[in-house]
Automatic annotation (TrEMBL):
An example Gene Ontology CC term for this record: cytoplasm
Domain HTH luxR-type: 141-206
A GO biological process held by the record: phosphorelay signal transduction system
Keyword Transcription: yes
Pfam families cross-referenced by the UniProt entry: GerE (PF00196), Response_reg (PF00072)
A Gene Ontology molecular function term of the record: DNA binding
Modified residues (4-aspartylphosphate): D54
Protein name (Swiss-Prot/TrEMBL): Response regulator transcription factor
Response regulatory domain location: 3-120
UniProt keyword list: DNA-binding, Phosphoprotein, Transcription, Transcription regulation
Statement: the UniProt record of this protein carries the keyword Iron: no
The organism's place on the tree of life at top rank: Bacteria
Length: 212
């Protein structure tokens, strides 16, 4: 039996999803939450296997923030974002946060069941309006980015903003020589030749967007 929690600020949507899921004998809806804060509290209490999470919710705690907190505190729990948003920036953010699944509210009932059972088995499940080739590229970009440490990623972002090595060193409280060493490592890891290629890499991979 897969324990499922539904998170959405619209009660009718939550009830509708519950009715759909009750058609499957191997699913058990153990909780419903109306916002991100309640989702975190309930998740810690009922420990669901899968959380169906809306993105846009009231009170300043969106689905991304709630999902990140739940995954941090309940590593065994899987999160599927169930949303109307089909824009690349949202999908890219979900991939960046290592969220297990992403599907649209307009999806067919069978796809919702497929999403739940797939992520529960440890599989990745992303069904969007994007062509499969474009979606695979987003995952490839994330894999390349994960090669860099958090400090190296921050240096790339600051370089994109036009900071010099001295300015970056002051911003990060490290020496200019350390900044230069980090940049050398970054260039070697990404197989880049110069600053212009580094900037193009950062733009192509939406480094500035990842802070949203």
């Amino acid at each position: 039996m897969i324990k499922v929690m539904i998170v959405d600020d619209h009660v009718l949507i939550r009830k509708g999803i519950r009715l759909l899921l009750e058609n499957y004998p191997d699913l058990d809806v153990v909780a419903e939450a109306s916002d991100g804060a309640e989702a975190i509290t309930l998740a810690l209490k009922v420990e669901p296997d899968v959380v169906l999470m809306d993105l846009s919710m009231p009170d300043g705690l969106d689905g991304f923030t709630a999902a990140k907190e739940i995954m941090a505190q309940l590593p065994a729990a899987k999160v599927v974002l169930l949303t109307m948003h089909d824009e690349e920036i949202y999908v890219r953010k979900a991939i960046h946060l290592n969220i297990h699944g992403y599907t649209l509210k307009k999806s067919h009932e069978n796809l919702l069941y497929e999403a739940i059972t797939s992520v529960n088995k440890g599989e990745r499940y992303y069904k969007t309006g994007f062509p499969e080739e474009q979606l695979n590229k987003l995952f490839d970009d994330q894999e390349k980015e994960s090669i860099l440490t958090n400090r190296e990623q921050e240096i790339v972002r600051l370089a994109m903003l036009g900071f010099t090595n001295i300015q970056i060193s002051r911003q990060l409280s490290i020496s200019p020589k350390t900044v230069e060493n980090h940049k050398t490592n970054i260039m070697q890891k990404l197989h880049l030749k110069n600053k212009h290629e580094l900037i193009r890499y950062g733009i192509k991979n939406h480094y500035l967007d990842l802070s949203i």
